[in-house]
Amino acid sequence: MKANKLKKVSIIRDATDKMSDANLKIEFSDNKVLPMLFGQFNSNLALIENKLGIVLNARGNKINISGTLEMSKIAVSVLNALYQKACEGISINEGEVNGVLRMNSTGVTKVNIDTNHVSTKKKKIYPRSHNQADYFNKMTNDALVFGLGPAGTGKTYLAVAKAVESLINGRVDRIILSRPAVEAGEQLGFLPGDMREKVDPYLRPLYDALHDMLPENQVAKKLDSGEIEIAPLAFMRGRTLADAFVILDEAQNTTPMQMKMFLTRLGENASMVVTGDLTQVDLPSGQRSGLFDAVDILEGTDGVGFVRFDEVDVVRHPLVAKIINAYAKKYSGKSNVNR
User: Which pTM was predicted?
Assistant: First the structure.
């Protein structure tokens, strides 16, 4: 469904200096979605006020914005983007508000949300930061993409979303999701059960992402038919992965030889995404990470894209970004022996 636009945006008192006070008024045409846009007890508006240092006064289908001209204009862009999402039936929660704020107040302010998103059977996934938008673009245009950065930045989730969209659209015939199980050595023998029972706990995040984008019966059907394959890294050896969207998650726990083996599986009409966090390497002390090795070797290679996420891109609980930043400060300047 095509989203409605703001009915009117007017500047009541103009200001030529972006730091001068301004008073803007915006009016919405669809009153039915405003409770979702404003949030319970206007909680979404309060979040925008706190982040931008402005004042929002809502009356009926109108909002008055008071603050500096620069921040007030950003507020208009944020409210317009959230309003369009609400018109599409997207739940406007704290995460959505923070994502749109991030997209509109950290550099590039014009992001085409009509095209820069991923559509799956259950939802549309929009980027919540400029690095996430860049990630979408690179996964569309490059055959091999590295998503590097801390937990909570959407590296794996967005890659699975892009893979599901590619399968639905018929661009690929299958999805292959892989992880080093437990550690680079994949020492699973001590665990009870058959191979699937041994590795499933370590591949759970990939299953969770799939179920967030496809109905449960379709996930089961595609797993049974082989359209979606989830397997530990060791199962990739000797294969040629053509007409597929291939994801290697937690790649920081590969050895250089495992990484080379995986990357050279890339076949015709295939896309490959490698994700990992070089600050969380679980390899034995002194063992170089295959992810660090691949980045060092392949950076600058045509057709290979790199996206580096940081705490600004964290889309989990706001405290996660603070935790990441605190650890980064604690260990800044200390070398990682596993690299």
Answer: 0.73
